[in-house]
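Lab notebook, page 48
Experiment: co-folding of the full assembly
Goal: obtain a model of how the components sit together before planning crosslinking
Operator: M.T.
Materials (sequences as entered):
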Amino acid sequence: MPEDRAELLDVRGLTKVFGTLKACDNVDLRIGKGEIHALLGENGAGKSTLVKMLFGSLEPNGGEIRWKGKPVRIGSPNAARKLGIGMVFQHFSLFEALTAAENIALSLDDDTPINTIAAKAKALSYSYGLPLDPYSLVGDLSVGERQRIEIIRCLLQTPELIILDEPTSVLTPQEADKLFATLERLRAEGKSILYISHRLEEVKRMCDAATVMRHGRVVDHCDPRKETAASLARMMVGNEVHAVVRTPFEGMAEAPVLLEVRDLSRPPATPFSIPLRHVRLDVRGGEVIGIAGVAGNGQGELFEAISGEVLQGDPGAIRIGGADCGRLKISARRMLGAAFVPEERLGHGAAPRMTLSENLLLTRHATDARAYVGAFGVIVTGALQSAAQRIIRTMDVRKSAVDPEAASLSGGNLQKFIVGRELDRQPRVLVVNQPTWGVDAGAAARIRQALIELARAGSAVLVISQDLDELFEISDRIAVMHNGELSEPIPAAEATLERIGLLMGGAEPGHVDHSAETA
Amino acid sequence: MFDAIIITIATAATPILIAAIGELVVERSGVLNLGVEGMMIMGAVTGFGVALTTGSPWLGFLAAAVVGALFSLLFGFLTLTLVTNQVATGLALTLLGLGVSGMIGEAFIGQPGVKMGNISIPLLSDLPFVGKLLFGQDPIFYLSILLTLAVAWFLFRTRAGLTLRSVGDNHASAHALGIDVIGIRYMAVTFGGACAGVAGGYLSLVYTPQWIENMTAGRGWIALALVVFASWRPWRVLAGAYLFGAVSIGQLHAQALGVGVPSQLLSALPYLATVVVLVLISRNRRLTMINTPASLGRAFVPDR
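Observation: model returned without errors.
Model output:
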């Protein structure tokens, strides 16, 4: 780190303990003036805990924060704002039922009239190239537009240090470029930025310095411009991550279509949600199709329709293995050989307070009734236990007891179990929503490899994900969901980041170069 | 005759309006207090007792407000500080209020009460039709209209009101911005309790100046329903309360005239009519969504 720069923030030995878990253990962090400083680490490494302490929403158990050379105590977000620290949250702290201007007003202490705030916010937003209508209702805005409100809200307080928590995880590549331009301009104005991310390429591209965290500790300080993506990844994970191997998919033309979606439409479930508009999709046995898209463009609605959580009027809208099942319930669809992994692990994918073997029975009570349920509905404990242990072994699920409660597992390990539970059945059709969200790199690689292997064994695999890198890694074809419409799937060889990004941002869907599509 | 009917309608509507406006503020902050009935009946018995002892209906109303607020603070302590279930706690509060009021009020049964008189503005109150209605009512009637006006203005025109609505919309975000979620909810709950107390006092000091056990007769529940069906908007609460008042007075007259409908059915009419009309006007789902406090009834525990 260059010594000539004036130090703005100096954190020494900061510690935060939750129960027995040391979320932050003796953390040091130094940020200079006019510097974009990256905070790197996997999910659960303690990055969010650290910045919450810097922004005053968590109280540290030990250590010291120095601001411009003087020790300070940051007791609340208001205190942080007074010092000149602003924050753009990862899970936005916005109020859906209020307008953009009202949202901004809530974080300002003074009693400036809403109309004045609206005018100021509008002027500022245009000057930074992030146009914003201050009177629009947040509930009606896209994720990218919501982020603009957060950024503008933060800038209006004229902060000297801006904390951005995973800002690009919800943006299209083009929106992200725009954000980077804004950040460079802020740096040029002498503001400092703490940039939290696990995307190494953008860190290498923009940041002047980096602090890497693992398991609550700082493991390294470095200059990301002098590192490679691989060396940064090694610092984050602690060891080499095995690359996912995708063997080419042979014989696509002859492979049978196992999952068909035909002209599927759904009205919006709530005034703020997205309808599905004439979605069509064929997934053939043997291939992995990825669905990309910015969060909240109808992916969740599509998953519910395919899995049978919401039924369709038209039986032919969804066909699994050639059978009409638009009006069939979840268990009936599973009986046809389909399996589903929803987005939310706890509460949706698994019952938190039940054991893993009980959770196994909950999803497979219909399909494996003969194996696990005996006469008069009595559970065959032995068979169930051995199946659960088999899944735990195959997926390398790390746990503290023989058959622990689902909630006691870490996110990554529970996800491995939930995916493994479906893979264990060798389903003909597998639909997964966000397979590796919040999962550490090692577990993610394992899950991705398992999905590819299932496809190559002849099953149809559909993966919905916000993580573009993941989709490029595992998909044979990629389709993009935008505003409830699904584009034609693009073969992986022709799909570039730019092309997918444009579709995610709403460029005309369905207009694919047809010369390459049907070989 | 016409004047008299209009005035009785206002008298029937006022307690429901006051209780509902208080509960509206509570629910806008994200707290569901089902104890309105219990707080009302406590206000009724306290108001009656204090007015009887001191001879002053004003002191009666003051005592009713204080007791309603104290009762709601008990609810606030349980649900906000100890994070108990709001629905169960609210129901318990209603049962507690009905029981305790019956015990306190035993000595008051059959005693003639103190009635708060109507004010009368010379000349103006002699105007035909509107005179008695606009210028010859009891003071609490004027208070209820002012209260509606003040609450509407507070919620939608002031920064403090915006903060209160934000807490009800998303308490996690509000906390992240440094807003004192629990403190604001305590204030809202206390305000709601004071309103419910005054509404109860109105029953035993104006509506029927005597103490009868269970004299609230479900008005607390109607106030709760009004808030929901009025999509948490003050002027719709006012309209709903007056509709309820009109139908209850109308059915009394119908009973007196001997209309050939069972009296039980007529007695149920105000409840039915209010709910039907408010369901019809809350059909606009988008508007309802925007006005519904999204955190309503959800417990909040800040992580520190």
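Interpretation: Chain B touches chain A at residues 159, 162-163, 165-166, 169-170, 172-179, 285-286, 289-292, 294, 303-304 (CB under 8 Å).
Next step: discuss with group before ordering constructs.
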